[in-house]
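Reopening: structure tokens for the S-adenosylmethionine complex, inputs below.
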Amino acid sequence: MSKQNIFNNDTFFEGYKALRAGETNYNDLLEQPAMAKLLPDLTDKTVLDLGCGYGHNCIDFVHRGAKRIVGIDISEKMLAVAKSESAHEKIEYLNMSMTDIAALGETFDFIYSSLAFHYVKDFDSFAKTMFAVLNNGGQLLFSQEHPIITATVDGNGHFNKDENGNRVSYTFSDYNRPGERKVHWYVDGVIKYHRTFSDVINALSKAGFVIEEICEPTPEEWAIEKLPTIVKEYIKPNFLIVKARK
Ligand SMILES: C[S@@+](CC[C@H](N)C(=O)[O-])C[C@H]1O[C@@H](n2cnc3c(N)ncnc32)[C@H](O)[C@@H]1O
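Re-run output (same inputs, fresh job):
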């Protein structure tokens, strides 16, 4: 099956744009702050951002002293935003699938990816590809939807409430059935791939990576003040973040 390019779909693109423009999205309140804490020193480093989207992280890497950044995205529409909002002479944006990065013929000190790896079908093979594209001693930092979120086949994991309407638990299923998931997110049929926690870690380990840190972020006080319902992250995590080294 060819790779899905759902961010190029007009309805999806507009829905996602509105989500990211809002003040209380989970990226800004939870995932990005946790990722920022795990960033290595990027002074004079070469960086590859996989599924770079609007390129906001690429610009951040310039400010953190990186000497060259390559942002890869399969969606021309996302890259068009990147090129207008996040252009810089140290950044090159390339329209290609992240699974094809071996074709770049270049190696990097740091590979970064925010919330894109759950769109990759074969993570075993992709982990090996990333390992080959990293310089020795180089690091990989990525976030993805947490396996608890991707697990349920019909996309209907849900919270359960007590008699006062408080969320007390979360029901999900199909955890140990890895594979394709089709969910409704702005449009029907958005394809993601569910992997168990052990699938993710074993793929990286078999490729040769040493795991340095794993994070399942919880909201800080300032985030709870902005969006009180985000305390539900204490019931189950939305994101899995992994930092690894070659
Ligand atoms: C949820 S967005 C995240 C964008 C950006 N990393 C951020 O955090 O703002 C996921 C991005 O991954 C891209 N993407 C999905 N599958 C891809 C693939 N196979 N190769 C490259 N990019 C891909 C999408 O087009 C989209 O821009």
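DSSP finds eight helices and eleven strands in the chain. The first helix runs from residue 10 to 21. Marking as resolved unless the reporter disagrees.
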